[in-house]
Write a structure and sequence with these properties.
Chain A is mostly helical. Chain A contains three helices and no strands. The radius of gyration of chain B is 17 Å and the shape is globular. Classes of the chains: A mainly alpha, B mainly alpha.
């Protein structure tokens, strides 16, 4: 055995086993953890960007929404008013009739 | 018997999100990276951590790898950088402590005894010399490839290997004589 052979034998004594499932599992676990953090980070960044855009465009967005809702709101409020009046009128009318009927029963 | 899938194919699959492909790369190159880390790290416990960090860093930067067929050399270069970063971040006290631990290591197993002797002998070399010896004598890399991995001039690597070989033979010879 030459000196070089002895040297290489000593150096290769530090080699790990050719196949080590635990090492692979440890690496893949760290990768899964890193991926999770990357996804969380990307989600937070996306949310922060959306909130920033919403905040920056707030006044314009409010104007646009108001303009969009107003034409709907005017006929809508008339319809709601009419529906409310009909409902209240119906309630008053039915109670009044019931009252008349009760009164008539007693009298 | 199935032919071995080339690294470039596994790298492409891993880039596309295949954990199975990356896992095969870990199986294939894990022993080389861990062996290299064990030879250059002063603390045996740190070596596997360095190897794991190298794989993690490779996974994160896989899209930046230009020549996918050179994955192994690229990975070894990452492991080398990780080992240097760790060595820098470790305090002098830790290094002293580790050196002391190394002196206390003993074993009844001749194979472990040889490993301990090799670690002690390697610890006598400067870190770049140790890395050059680890790559060229134990890892089978050419001087040119080692120069690329260590980011050192070719002449420096040749000189490191030559001096490192002589020094290691001296230290291991002293052990045999003693």
């Amino acid at each position: 055995m030459t000196d070089d052979d002895k040297l290489i034998e000593a150096l290769t004594a530090l080699d790990p086993p050719r196949r080590d499932v635990r090492f692979r599992a440890a690496v893949m676990e760290r990768i899964a953890r890193r991926r999770f953090l990357i996804e969380i980070g990307a989600g937070c960044a996306g949310l922060a960007l959306a909130l920033l855009l919403l905040w920056l465009s707030g006044p314009e967005l409010a104007g646009v929404l108001n303009a969009a809702v107003r034409p709907l709101a005017e006929p809508g409020s008339v319809l709601i008013g009419l529906a409310l009046a009909a409902f209240l009128g119906h309630r008053v009318a039915t109670r009044g009739l019931a009252g008349l009927r009760l009164d008539g029963g007693r009298s | 018997m199935s032919a071995e899938v080339p690294d470039a194919v596994l790298v492409a699959a891993a880039r596309a999100g295949s954990d199975a492909a990356f896992s095969r790369l870990v199986d294939r190159h894990g022993p080389a990276v861990r062996g290299f880390a064990r030879r250059i790290s002063p603390a045996p416990d740190d070596a596997d951590d360095i190897a794991q960090e190298a794989f993690l860093s490779a996974w994160t930067r896989l899209r930046g790898l230009k020549e996918a067929d050179r994955f192994k050399a690229w990975l070894m270069a990452i492991a080398w950088r990780k080992a240097r970063e760790r060595a820098r971040s470790m305090g002098r006290s830790r290094t002293r402590e580790t050196a002391w631990q190394g002196e206390q290591e003993t074993s009844a197993d001749p194979a472990s005894d040889l490993a301990i002797a090799a670690r002690r002998a390697l610890s006598q070399l400067p870190v770049e010399q140790r890395a050059a010896v680890a790559l060229c004598l134990a890892g089978g890399w050419s001087h040119g490839e080692a120069a690329g991995i260590l980011n050192l001039p070719l002449g420096t690597v040749k000189s490191h290997v030559s001096r490192g070989r002589v020094r290691l033979q001296q230290v291991l010879g002293e052990r045999d004589d003693g």
